[in-house]
Amino acid sequence: MSRYLSANSYGSGSRQGDRNRSRSPGDDRFRTRPPTSSRREETRRSVRSNMLPQVRVLDQSGDDPFDTPPFAAESPTFRFAVFVMHFAISLLESDSGRAALYETAHTIWDNWGRARRTLIFRQDVNRDRGVLDRAVDRFLENIRADPPNILVSSRLQGEGLAQRQEWSEFREQFEVKWGTIFRLNKRIIDDAIAAADAHDKTEFRRFLFLMGMSTAHELVHAFVGVLTGDTTTLTPPPADFPRPGDRSSTTPGESGRFFEGALTGFLVEAYQLNHGLGDRQAGELLCQARSSAGNVYYILNESWMLDRLYLDFRRDSFPAPLSSWQSIRVRRTDQPMQMVRRPPRGEDFGHRVVTSWIQWVNSLPTVTVDAEQLSDIMHMVTEPRNIRPLPSDSGARRARA
Predict the structure, then answer these.
(1) Antiparallel, parallel or unpaired: β 327-329 and 335-336
(2) Its domain of life (predicted)?
């Protein structure tokens, strides 16, 4: 499911919670006692923005969708996933990211009408701005101190997918690690690693930016779960980015698209313009502005993109100066990369109960990526070979620098 083609990226199409779905055979293999920690809140309050604790990156490429072994912390897949997650969280934590999250939440609240009765906060946010400020703060603290488990999956067509899940059996309130299945496309990550190994900086950076923005987009869907406290409440239609052509005023909105538009002023999508590179390329990153006609895009400025990859999120960077970028008219023969790539493979979760699997996953060991390790990973923007860890001795480090 694409973050651009789907009206709502929360789940597999069913609006029923897992509790109302039929249990599939074999789910009991994941039965385990969920871990608890009396220091969870202390960890959240003390965690620094230059580290990423409690990370799990899992492999969902086998035949069984529930068979999700962890990637080793030294693997290029783990390091790529850490890069895009840290990029996305850092973007959301920036002043501009916080403002866009607040605007997203306020637009949703303004247009929910009667659905407000189900929200976890009941105050009038027009009278007390602090209500949504605190919701934004709590969400950002949660994803920094305890980021979502990342499934690197062969079962996606688009870049990523966040699916809210039933969590009330083992949590008193929504937490992203327990209430969201967060997935990134394994095929795209494999192609990005191949570009890094070929030392193709231009191509690799496009992969980093595309997947980083997709990760931020999907985290916004998880943020809606923080606001609602449930798994089923849909985003109201006005919380979306304008789509080419007419669309029904009753179609559910798309909070991730709205956030991207509020932050950057555009949506970015990868297109196959160079057909000779095939389906393993990142594609040309094209930006659709609010005021653009249906087939008119702007080519993403590489210098602007590079500054963002270096985590430069200053307020004057947003919205992007699209009027100074090269415009392009997309032809009918130019296809989005998500349509060019081979279709997803493997059986997916479907309507089967996943709560036991979520408990099992959250009993697995985690990895804390400290400041030095994270700096090494983020350096892959300059040196793509950092997709793999440097040797421990300083001489080798200098040789690779």
Answers:
(1) unpaired
(2) Eukaryota
Phi first, then psi: give them for residue 288, nearest 5 degrees: -95, 120
Looking at the domain assignment, is residue 292 inside a domain?
no
The residue that leads in pLDDT, 40 or 62, is: 62
The enclosing H or E element of 163 equals strand 160-164
pLDDT of 29 strictly over 60: no
- Virtual CA dihedral for 146, 147, 151, 157, nearest 10 degrees? 160
Alpha-carbon distance of 45 to 25, in angstroms, equals 41
CA 140 to chain centre: 14
- CA distance linking residue 121 with residue 138, whole number of Å: 13
Higher pLDDT, 27 or 86: 86
* Predicted model pTM: 0.84
Tens digit of each residue's pLDDT (9 = 90 or more) over 82-96:
999 999 999 999 999
Average pLDDT score over the chain: 81
b/e sequence 224-261, b meaning 16+ C-beta within 10 Å = bbbbbbbbebbbbbebbbebeeeeeeeebbbbbbbbbb
Q: How far apart are CA 27 and CA 353, in angstroms?
A: 7
Give the integer Cα–Cα distance in Å for 356 and 382.
Answer: 41
Is 396 within a domain? yes
272 located within any domain: no
For the residues of 259-304, what is the DSSP string, one character each?
HHHHHHSEEEEEEE--GGGGGGS--EEEEEETT--TTEEEEPPHHH
- Whether the bond between 148 and the residue before it is cis, its omega within 30 degrees of 0, is no
Question: Does 275 fall in a domain?
Answer: no
Rounded Cα gap, residues 236 and 112, in angstroms:
6
* Residue carrying the six token digits 């779960």: 225
Q: Is 74 exposed, middle or buried (0-12, 13-18, 19+ CB in 10 A)?
A: exposed
Q: What is d(CA 8, CA 2) in angstroms, rounded to the nearest whole number?
A: 10
What's the confidence (pLDDT) of residue 231?
A: 75
Domain count, the chain: 1
Measure the CA–CA gap between 290 and 367, rounded to whole angstroms: 40
Please write the tens of the pLDDT for every residue from 152-174: 999 998 999 999 887 777 777 77
Which DSSP state fits 147?
Answer: P
Give me the mean pLDDT over the 248-263 stretch. 84
Q: What is the pLDDT of residue 164?
A: 85
Instruction: Tell me the two tokens of residue 373.
Output: 């390790």
Beta-strand relationship, 57-60 and 327-329: unpaired
